[in-house]
């Protein structure tokens, strides 16, 4: 399995200038390649192949006075910029022809020096090296100071140097790591995700939503007001923009750290994990959009999925149309309608259910049934549309109504 390890790096003034030059050269090569292909299409010419494009915008461009300065950076950086462009076109063609699932991929766009994120990539051909003193040696840039929070699992195959909107620099290593199975445990868990409680487990455990963005909203509001008062194009406005970016970066870092710790704990304690396949994109169009994005469900489930694969655990998603909230986990009775403000309910069979715990138990049962049913037949109720009055979304939103059943008003 390929893993990515990110570390903070601290370049000095000369190294920051060299990195800025490398960012600019990679950006120019990417834009030149994109322009060449757009002009070829506008002139009804054949698609410019990867090899011909490399010769045109790198090899021959270096011999011209207008692009002679491309020789001041590593050629690997320029080749990787074109590799990103080629990958963008492959994704576009795969999306158009239906080979790539999901939403339609947009065509590649021109990169700008004003983009909040700048990045360059070095592969093994560039002969980058981690020195014995802990510094990272990059060709034509120098030895960068790295804050090693942990050791690399294996020798890296590539490293990407990133500058974010807050002006911070990171080195992102890609390594090939072997799976590390955890000891077998008998516990299995179903997870119902929500807003009041971030995650409710089938064993009754409830994790309160941390609401990182909400907690920092007061400071963010003040910084954004300071930014709006600054004159456009001034140095003070650029400084204020960096302060806003740093505040948002602090929120994102805190959320990511919390999600990593919680997902690791769940994977360590359970042999199988089942979650509902929420339509986060659709929920992001509702009145709960800010709270949905603050929760970070998509990243959390992605962490659970790759950590389960790495540590020998089972991970599965339950169909979003499965009526986990309205179904009794004891007798299987399905209610016709249940408003969001109903947090507990009684079944005709005599069972009393907490709304979220009952949903988590149903998700666990559905996940087990799908995994144990080796013939692939449906063992649960068929997909159905929830009553219109139960949905809290726009009728045209690309999301199932079940996706908001487990949510409570923020």
Outline the secondary-structure elements.
Elements: E1 2-10, H1 13-42, H2 50-59, H3 75-97, E2 118-123, E3 129-130, E4 136-138, E5 142-147, E6 156-163, E7 169-176, E8 188-193, E9 197-201, E10 206-208, H4 212-215, H5 217-229, H6 235-269, E11 272-276, H7 280-283, H8 289-295, H9 297-310, E12 314-318, E13 344-346, E14 352-354, H10 355-372
Parallel strand pairs: 8-11, 11-12
Antiparallel strand pairs: 1-5, 1-7, 2-6, 3-4, 4-5, 6-7, 8-9, 9-10, 13-14
Task: Characterize the structure shown.
The protein is α+β, with helices and mostly antiparallel strands and 410 residues long. 39% of the residues lie in helices and 18% in strands. It contains 10 helices and 14 strands. A 7-stranded antiparallel β-sheet has the order 2-6-7-1-5-4-3. Strands 10-9-8-11-12 form a 5-stranded mixed β-sheet. A two-stranded antiparallel ribbon has the order 13-14. A hairpin with a 4-residue loop joins strand 9 (197-201) and strand 10 (206-208). Helix 1 crosses helix 2 (50-59) and helix 2 (50-59) runs antiparallel to helix 3 (75-97). The longest helix has 35 residues, at 235-269. The radius of gyration is 25 Å and the shape is elongated. Residues 378-410 have low confidence and may be disordered.
């Amino acid at each position: 399995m390929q893993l990515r390890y990110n570390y903070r790096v601290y370049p000095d003034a000369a190294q920051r200038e060299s990195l800025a030059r490398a960012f600019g050269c990679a950006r120019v090569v990417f834009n030149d390649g994109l322009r060449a292909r757009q002009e070829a299409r506008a002139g009804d010419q054949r698609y410019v192949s990867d090899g011909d494009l490399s010769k045109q915008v790198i090899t021959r461009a270096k011999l011209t006075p207008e692009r002679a300065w491309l020789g001041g950076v590593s050629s690997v950086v320029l080749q990787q910029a074109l590799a990103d462009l080629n990958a963008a076109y492959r994704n576009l063609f795969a999306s158009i022809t239906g080979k790539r699932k999901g939403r339609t991929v947009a065509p590649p766009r021109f990169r700008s020096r004003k983009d909040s994120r700048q990045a360059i990539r070095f592969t093994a051909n560039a002969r980058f090296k981690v020195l014995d003193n802990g510094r990272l040696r990059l060709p034509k840039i120098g030895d960068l100071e790295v804050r090693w929070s942990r050791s690399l699992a294996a020798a890296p195959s590539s490293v990407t140097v990133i500058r974010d909107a807050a002006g911070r620099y990171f080195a992102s290593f890609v390594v090939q790591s072997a799976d590390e199975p955890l000891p077998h445990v008998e516990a299995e868990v179903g997870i119902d995700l929500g807003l009041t409680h971030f995650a409710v487990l089938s064993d009754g455990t409830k994790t309160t939503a941390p609401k990182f963005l909400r907690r920092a909203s007061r400071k963010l509001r003040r910084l954004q007001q300071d930014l709006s008062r600054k004159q456009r194009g001034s140095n003070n406005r650029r400084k204020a923009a960096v302060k806003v970016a740093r505040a948002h970066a602090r929120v994102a870092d805190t959320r990511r750290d919390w999600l990593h710790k919680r997902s690791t704990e769940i994977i360590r304690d359970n042999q199988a994990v089942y979650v509902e396949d929420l339509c986060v994109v659709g929920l992001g169009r509702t009145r709960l959009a800010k709270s949905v994005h603050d929760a970070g469900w998509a990243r959390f489930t992605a962490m659970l999925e790759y950590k389960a694969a790495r540590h020998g655990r089972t991970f599965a998603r339950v169909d979003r149309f499965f009526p986990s909230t309205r179904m009794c986990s004891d007798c299987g009775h399905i209610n016709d309608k249940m408003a969001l403000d109903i947090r507990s309910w009684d079944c005709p069979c005599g069972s009393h259910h907490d709304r979220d715990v009952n949903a988590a138990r149903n998700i666990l049962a559905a996940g087990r049934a799908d995994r144990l049913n080796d013939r692939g037949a449906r063992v649960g109720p068929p997909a159905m549309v929830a009553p219109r009055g139960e949905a809290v979304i726009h009728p045209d939103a690309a999301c199932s109504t079940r996706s908001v059943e487990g949510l409570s008003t923020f």
